[in-house]
Amino acid sequence: MDDVSTILNSDPSEGGKSAEELFPLVYNELRRLAGARMAGEVRQHTLQATALVHEAWLRMVRDEDRSWENKASFFSAASLAMRRILVEHARRKGRQKRGGAQKRVDLEITDLADSEPDEKILLVEDALIQLEQRHPEWAKIVVMKYFGGMTQQEIAEALGIGERSVRRYWTFARAWLYDRIRAETE
Amino acid sequence: MDGLDPIQVRADEIFFSALEIEIDTERDAYIEKACASDARLRERVDRLLSAVSESESFFSEAAPTQITTADVVQTLDGLDKVLEKAGRVFEEEDEEVGKQIGPYKLLRKIGEGGSGNVYVAEQSAPVRRLVAFKIIKRGMDTKSVIARFESERQALAMMDHPNIAHVYDAGKTETGRPFFVMELVSGIPITRYCNANGLGLRQRLELFVQVCHAVQHAHQKGIIHRDIKPSNVLVDLYEGGARPRVIDFGIAKAVHKGLLGDAEGFTVIEPFVGTPTYMSPEQAQMGGDDLDTRSDIYSLGTLLYELLTGQTPFDAKVLAEEGVDAMRRTLMNQEPQRPSVRLKNVAPESNSMLTTKGGVAELERALSGDLDWIVMKALEKDRTRRYETVDAFSTDITRYLNFEPVTARPPSRRYQFQKMVRRNRGAVFSAAAVLAVLLAGLTVSSWLLVRERVARRRAVTAEQQAKEARKSEAQLRVEAEAREAIAMAAVLLNREQFEAAEELVADVELPVIKPSLEAGAVFLDLAEWNLQRGEWNTAAAHMLRFARAVQVDKSDLTDDATRGLLCVSPTLIVAGDQEEYRKFAWEIIRRFGQTQNPIAAEQVIKMCITFPCDEALLKEVEPLGGILRETISNFRGRTQWDIYIHAWRMWAVSLLEYRLGHYDEAVYWSRGNLKSVDETPTRIAMNHTILACSLYHLGHHDEALAELQAAEKIIKVGLPLRLERVVRIGNNAEGYWFDWFSAYLLLNEAQQIVPSPL
């Protein structure tokens, strides 16, 4: 368990930038990208959230004076940003829909699989906060995979661990979160 | 959340290990063994195992939201605010120098602050002039910021004060960021100015009083600053003298308000610009929903604190280092050190007054006493105990400068008071909100912390909203109007404009008066003024309002403010209002009848039975006599003050004995009392009246007559002299006016009992 966390908190002496360090840069890039799209005619154009990250990445690597250790570490930073964006977005939409200061997701979902995308995100977020307190390392994998849309391979590279470990952690974390969500919605 | 539930922790471990085992039978065996016979543990593990396959479809893909670009931009705007609070302010492209924004051309950057950058700009139309141009950082909802500014614009335009820098205009830049255009002030922050020029105590206070006048002017126009701090109080040189100028009026409100809670659809923490140490507790607590002028008074208090000591009352950095829980405790309970005490921990370079000849010791002497109490009164955590107006605050400082007595007093029983504050404030005071504020000024990069604070903030806001919703809006408005009227009256009274003050509060109904010591002071002043004019009934009405206003808390009658309650009974009796007197006395018994404090016991006796009362009330008062007897028998005092107090206690006992019909006892106590070396005329006269009545009841008619004449002699000379100027409560030596009234009324009573020889 330890190895995961030490790597994510990264060792700058080995040339790697931690997700935390990268975050502001990624964040600004996302903002610039979104702003540019706003200025164009694609205002209401719907996109898969993770596509935005990919696009941001492509723009950044074109920018020569930014040298990234690798794509994976960029993505792990972007995952943090995407998590914030998606959760905030889901909250706002939920609030608008209910017309009030709804704090929690409605817990009347009969079948979890049928839950609305926004509700789902909020359910995952609530459970993820709990997982972070218990097993922060595995929570990081959830952020990368679920919010950042990273592949197992990318996650393995970003964290410097084997793909098999990523799969195990993910299975564990996934079941753990689901158990939590199920308990909340029962 | 179940925290670190040991069963869950164990279940997680077993589950994780079980996933490693690929052969079903082996896995089952492992689980069986690991769980032993713990049924609850087994159930948890089984739940997790069953979730493995069920969760597969739930997490089959990445977060599924389809999101539009517009959504992303909006969301990022909201996140900016959150991130900024965590100290994660990202570099922004500056508005370039040389750029033209409307009629303004940016010339050079002169400042960079928490909320934005400030430029010198040249305005080309309608007038050509240099202005300060402040661009607010991204993350604000531009439309609401400007709308809020517009709503206050008229009031801002009405401000006309040499110590206030004008705000001319607001708008938005091409990129949609709000900006403000202000009068250009070329000064330096007041604290720096004072130290750089080695200003002494008097000069600092005089400068500060000017700042107060500016803020008071704004308050009279209905404008609260909300962000008073050294960097918003600049000092420049004008006609050869130092002139403080308060900048940014109207801006804090425009910028802050929209960032509250869910107002704009985002759950964010309002951005507290700059350091939280200048912010009033209610501002930290409620964020800005219910701020009034007293919030500025607190901030001014902090500023004065810093001018005097070189330090702010609380050190944000120190607090942050204490850890979350300790910080919460500190903020909930801790009163700042008095300025004179704080001095000992100040580095000399942060206060130029410390490097002068006397150094710490001399400044400490100068601060301790009046200045300490003035500052502490402005810094009261409970705003009802602060100065009601900036004017009252600055008047006190002026009094100090003129070597006159000030109104601020040491809270007599600080400990009890603090306890009371905590009790009254209850759960509403959210340390979490304060914590958020404190951290905002520091650099915190923990992602977790941001989320935690957002969650807490949400809880706080909901609680606050629920509380406010309980009060009807109409009621709130009436209360607010009453408070405004009273605050204005306080200003007028300080200028001795009694008629105008009276007119302002004439319509204030008793039930809408909120407890506040300053409101109490207003009504007491008005009551005294009316007494002087012989308007007994109006005076009595004000006395009742006063009595209501000072129901501030669990005061125990030992502090100066509630001592004014001694004025109520005599006034009501003079006005002939027996019924209100009876009600008042019962109210006093209800509130203070259980006291064990001799000071309070004496006051209750005087308030309740100086004039004839019913039997039931007398029974309630009787036990208080025991408390006084005990302190009297243990009397060891030597000072003039001790003897004075002792004599009044004896008087209270003889009064009680007389009302109880124990005439022998009354005679004993009164005679003893008359031997006191204390020469307070009122007390002596009242002892003669008690003696006259008691002796007459015991059949000693001649002696009774002699006592009556002794009382008459004192009262006939003293009372008219004293009545010439009721409007000062008086002092020990000349006798308080209410004691003179009591003596006069007791004399009337005695004259009914003891027949005059004529």
What can you tell me about this protein's structure?
The complex is a heterodimer of chains A (186) and B (758). Chain A is mainly α and 186 residues long. Chain A has one domain. Helices cover 70% and strands 2% of the residues of chain A. Chain A is built from eight helices and one strand. In chain A, 45% of the residues are buried. The N terminus of chain A is likely disordered. Chain B folds into five domains: 52 residues, no CATH class; 97 residues, Phosphorylase Kinase, domain 1, CATH 3.30.200.20; 278 residues, Orthogonal Bundle (Transferase(Phosphotransferase), domain 1); 80 residues, no CATH class; 180 residues, Serine Threonine Protein Phosphatase 5, Tetratricopeptide repeat. Helix content of chain B is 58%, strand content 7%. In chain B, the strands form two sheets. Chain B has a six-stranded antiparallel β-sheet with strand order 2-3-4-5-7-6, covered by helices on one side. A three-stranded antiparallel β-sheet of chain B has the order 8-9-10. In chain B, a hairpin with a 2-residue loop joins strand 9 and strand 10. In chain B, helix 20 packs across helix 22. The radius of gyration of chain B is 33 Å and the shape is extended. The relative contact order of chain B is 0.05. The chains are: A mainly alpha (186), B alpha+beta (758). At the A-B interface, helix 2, strand 1, helix 3, helix 4 and helix 5 of A face helix 1, helix 3, strand 1, helix 4 and helix 19 of B. Strand 1 of chain A pairs antiparallel with strand 1 of chain B.
Taking all residues together, what is the mean pLDDT of chain B?
A: 76
CATH homologous superfamily identity of the largest domain in chain B: Transferase(Phosphotransferase) domain 1
Count every helix of chain B, treating DSSP H or I runs of 4 or more residues as helices.
33
Tell me, what is the CATH class of the largest domain in chain B? Answer: Mainly Alpha
Order of helices and strands of chain A: HHEHHHHHH
Strand fraction band of chain B?
5-15%
User: Widest sheet of chain B: strand order?
Assistant: 2-3-4-5-7-6
